């Protein structure tokens, strides 16, 4: 919000003080991340400042070494698979819940988003004990299903938020013209809620790419993901390659955040004509 030309002295002081405080908080939170990025370009094997010489040695080791190739492949396979599954389940659940009105609806929503609130250690232990009974421990399917469970609440929330501004008269119009429910969903509903679906999918992928606790419980030696490889390596032998891996993850996270911001602005732009028409 811009500062009014009629603002008092106290309001002006608070306006600038608030922004300085927010800037300091962001600097404090981001400084540890920004501090490790230059070290990933250090040619030496020791993690210290000042940097000796700039080099891409550790990035070559990260992308070309077989030691890291398998975890990267596993993370991408699990991440994309869990993202697709979480997006489909979360979107269908959000549409169904928002269309229906039944007793216990809020309780059901709370149950569906509970994986966001329950500590990951409890979720991982529960999955481990459940998978042990049905033989899904040490399998790709088990990891993908577990990560999809963690991603569904994010898809459910983002799609539900998008559906709040959706005009269901469009669904009735499509049905009155003879379109099947499936055709109405793909031709009318999905294009209008696409920003929420994509946002939820990106959240689900980011959660899967960053998750390590559940993998430690249910994955086997052949299913090491990138976070698990970093976690295990830190305890054994720490090299600047870990900083290169961390920098790559930071860049990916930043790209996802930029994409989410672009989708948010696009959603606001699409909703503005509807809000103006409702106001008139």
Q: Which of globular, elongated, flat, extended, rod-shaped describes the shape?
A: globular
CATH top level is Mainly Alpha
Distance between the termini: 25 Å
Would you identify the CATH H-level superfamily? Answer: MetI-like
CATH topology: MetI-like fold
The total of beta strands comes to 0
Q: What structural class do helix, strand and pairing data support?
A: mainly alpha
Question: Residue ranges: pLDDT <50 for 5 or more in a row?
Answer: none
User: What is the CATH-assigned architecture?
Assistant: Orthogonal Bundle
What's this, in brief?
This protein has helices at 9-39, 57-64, 66-99, 105-112, 114-117, 120-134, 140-163, 169-176, 181-210, 213-218, 226-236, 240-279. The chain is an all-alpha fold and 280 residues long.
Keywords:
mainly alpha; MetI-like fold; globular
Q: Could you explain how this protein is built, in words?
A:
This protein has 280 residues and is mainly alpha-helical. It has a single domain (66-279), classed as MetI-like fold (Orthogonal Bundle). Helices cover 78% and strands 0% of the residues. It has helices at residues 9-39, 57-64, 66-99, 105-112, 114-117, 120-134, 140-163, 169-176, 181-210, 213-218, 226-236, 240-279. Helix 3 crosses helix 9. The chain is globular. It starts with 8 loop residues before the first helix and ends with a helix. The mean pLDDT is 83.
């Amino acid at each position: 919000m811009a500062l009014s030309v009629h603002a008092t002295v106290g309001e002006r002081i608070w306006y600038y003080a608030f922004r300085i405080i927010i800037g300091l908080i962001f600097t404090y939170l981001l400084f540890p991340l920004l501090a490790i990025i230059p070290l990933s370009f250090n040619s030496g094997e020791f993690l210290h400042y000042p940097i000796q010489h700039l080099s891409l040695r550790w990035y070559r080791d990260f992308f070309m070494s077989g030691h890291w190739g398998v975890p990267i492949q596993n993370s991408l396979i699990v991440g994309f698979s869990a993202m697709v599954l979480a997006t489909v389940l979360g979107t269908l659940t959000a549409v169904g819940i928002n269309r229906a009105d039944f007793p216990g609806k809020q309780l059901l929503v709370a149950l569906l988003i509970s994986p966001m609130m329950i500590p990951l250690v409890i979720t991982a232990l529960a999955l481990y004990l459940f998978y042990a009974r049905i033989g899904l421990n040490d399998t790709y399917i088990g990891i993908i299903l577990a990560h999809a469970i963690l991603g569904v609440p994010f898809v459910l929330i983002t799609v539900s938020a998008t559906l709040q501004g959706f005009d269901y008269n469009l669904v009735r119009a499509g049905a009155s013209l003879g379109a099947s429910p499936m055709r109405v969903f793909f031709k009318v509903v999905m294009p209008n809620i696409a920003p929420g679906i994509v946002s939820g999918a990106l959240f689900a992928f980011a959660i899967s790419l960053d998750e390590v606790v559940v993998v430690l419980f249910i994955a086997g030696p052949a299913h090491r993901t990138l976070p698990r490889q970093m976690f295990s390596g830190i305890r054994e032998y720490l090299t600047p390659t870990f900083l290169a891996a961390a920098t790559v993850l930071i860049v990916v996270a930043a790209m996802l955040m930029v994409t989410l911001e672009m989708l948010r602005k696009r959603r606001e732009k699409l909703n503005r004509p509807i809000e103006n028409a409702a106001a008139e």
